[in-house]
Amino acid sequence: MAIVYLNGEFIPADKAQVSVYDRGYLLGDGIYEVIPVYAGSAFLLDRHLQRLQNSLDGVRIENPFSDAQWTGIINDLIARNNAGDQSLYLQVTRGVAPRDHIFPIGVAPSVFLMSNPLHPVADSWKTDGIKAITTADIRWMRCDIKAITLLANSLMKQLAQDAGAQEALLLRDNYLTEGSASNAYVVIDGVIFTAPKDEKVLPGITRDLIIELAAQNDMPLHERAISESALRNADEIWISSSTKEVVPVTLLDGEIVGNGKPGPVWQQMDILFQRYKQEVI
Ligand code: PDD
Question: Would you say residue 1 has pLDDT above 90?
Fold first, then answer.
């Protein structure tokens, strides 16, 4: 039985219960993080804790713990779930209070963490790439906050699933923002582009690392708005996330991307990414 952390206690997952008055349950009033764990070690943890702080600030929930306390809880949970490769999920909601849109006063946030086995993506995702669809980005204008309120993301991802695709790439005003659960990139004439950090995209931790690896290895990369036509004519398209790393997209809305195979720029980035991972774990 997996062990989870709930409001100060490490308990078996089937014993973990929250009140129906929790504002996460009633209002989607909370934020979360997903942190990959490789060989028992939380990958880029300091960056995830910084983004956690930014999300808490964005929704005006006081951080219940210091970074050192978070690190202790996270490492304890990893160990209790037999180390190895895991996907650690952490959420903070505004807590339990009578239903009201106005924030309650003097209520402690609810804190929940769980850790599940992290399965690498299927080999075929890397040898052949994945299918994606495009869809209108129907989310709010604070996508930089990692809010638990994922109904729009879920609806868009389900559209991809219904179309036999693995991800939905989101278009807002004819520009690519990101994926329903990933950041997105295009490669045009050897140059990598990804949408700039603003309120329309999540500042992905994997995205930051990709940008740094590109800079360190003389791979041209620009954080710039990507038009729909640039997306449709790209030589390569990739997505990235903490649980999937960097994945090539080879079919978009049924049209072949580039030559239909994962491209050379993606291959180079994947090698750099895997090398970086090996160095830090
Ligand atoms: N999602 N954009 C969105 C909308 C996301 O949901 C995610 C990740 C990312 C990538 O961010 P990062 O590299 O920090 O994982 C971008 C996680 C994995 C999830 O919701 O499960």
Answer: no
Catalytic residue list contains 146? yes
Query: 84 falls in which pLDDT band (50, 70, 90)?
Result: confident
Mutate to test the pocket of ligand 1, among 241, 247, 273 (most ligand atoms within 8 A of CB): 241
Residue of 227, 139, 237 lying closest to 183 (CA atoms): 237
10 Å CB burial of residue 6 (0-12, 13-18, 19+) is: middle
pTM listed for this prediction: 0.98
Assess contact for 258 and 236: CB atoms under 8 A.
Answer: yes
> Smallest Cα–Cα separation from 59: which of 134, 1, 165, 145?
145
Span from the CA of 105 to the centroid of ligand 1 (angstroms): 31
Q: How far apart are the first and last CA of the chain?
A: 26
Predicted confidence at residue 281, as pLDDT, reads: 81
